[in-house]
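Q: How do we represent a protein-ligand complex in a form that can be generated token by token?
A: Start from the inputs.
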Amino acid sequence: MLNQILFTIAVLQARALAQSCPTLSASYPAPSVASGYEARLIAQGLERPRGLLFDDKGNLLVVERGRGISAFNVNGDGSCVTLENKKAVVQDEELNHGIELSDDGKTLYASSIDSVFKYEYDSGGLSVNGQGEAIINGMRTDGTVTRTLLLSRKSKNKLLVSRGSDENIDLSAVDINGGESQIRIFDPTQGGQEYTAGQTLGWGLRNAVGVAENPSDGGVWSAENNADNIERDGIEIHENNPAEELNYHGRLDDDNNPHMDKNYGYPLCYGAWDTEEIPSAGDLQVGQQFAIAEENATNSDSFCHDDREAPRLVFQPHTSPLDIKFDSKGENLYVTLHGSWNREDPVGYSVSVIKFGADGQPTEPSTSTTALSPIIANSNTTACPGECFRPAGLAWDPKGRLYFTSDSTGEIYVLVKSGGEGLDDERAATGAAPTTNFNTFGMLITAAACIFAYFL
Ligand SMILES: *[C@@H]1O[C@H](CO)[C@@H](O)[C@H](O)[C@H]1NC(C)=O
Ligand SMILES: CC(=O)N[C@H]1CO[C@H](CO)[C@@H](O)[C@@H]1O
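Then emit the structure tokens for the protein with 2-acetamido-2-deoxy-beta-D-glucopyranose bound:
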């Protein structure tokens, strides 16, 4: 089975003018970058950076876990980005991952393990007015800590909040009223809401840290981090099962959305990856769900198949998909893979891309094990997690450049096409219109770094 695409050692050729590019060097071996892309390390020294986004003036806001929200002015063309004038926007050590901004850029949202906070935000002053108001409460668990936020751009006043399980295999998640392992929908203009009062978009989602809305058709997707240390029929199968999952939730503006309020299996059913290692697998295929049980496993498999929503795609177990972001046309879904701990050979530790078709669905079938194409990865994963970057949050800037945080190393990277153009053509076209600090000569002379890698 093809588990991992191997990279050869990347060759870095820096052709850019020294003064126009930041030259930060990482404490670990230079990452491998796929052909056609360029990557650059643009910030270090952050406190476990997680979610990030760009405001209406093109400033970068990033959640530093245990510190709060920080802002930077962003300058430079191509991959030669500099982050300047760091400013603390919100100082709150409880904030740990989620961040969102309203369409008009004036309301900022962030999450802690227990609550979602709302702030009046001023992008001119890079500041918030007063304290945040807790608009959603009651999410604390002993297990998962992230509460991913997603504001729908297709439906007004719908804030999606994803909450994970209380423990690895959390049997309380079989009760929809408990509120564990769910994505719920809230009206962000209301205050003082309990998490369990939200409308359930999906449940049985162990820890759906990545949540995204396809801009082309409004389809909502989530990336689920699946269970560790699982056994079936008393046999350890955790090395190559269960799969991480990409689940489909339909459109929020569809009053007859057939996926609304559906159960995706956890804690009873799990996506299969390596079916040969699953006892009594029968004709179970990659991407179908199976039951974990001491007895009756095969009987329960039919329940998982018939009564639970199957993933639309599966990924290698333990790769840990954290953030997912579509490009403007909904043709590519980018994924950060935070990386494994519960397996012998480290996997994940990369940013990858999934192709989507004009029908708003992935081009690969649900049985595929090759839906992810790596863009940037650690060149020596045997040293992970110790000497590796660990991708966490993703964000687009107005020029269509894609940024990601690495929480373990306190870093931010930018990804562009070879030659410096943004990865998102549509944003690059509109965002590159003459603005305050756009410089045509800069674009031409900033050939930046060419990084070559070959897929084996
Ligand atoms: C990869 O990392 C491991 C563990 O730190 C180290 O022993 C090994 O020499 C490294 N391999 C290369 C090719 O650098
Ligand atoms: C639902 C089902 O098939 N239950 C069976 C599980 O296994 C026990 C022991 O073999 C049977 O007694 C049950 O009927």
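The two ends are 15 Å apart (CA to CA). Residues 1-18, 433-456 have pLDDT under 50 and may be disordered.
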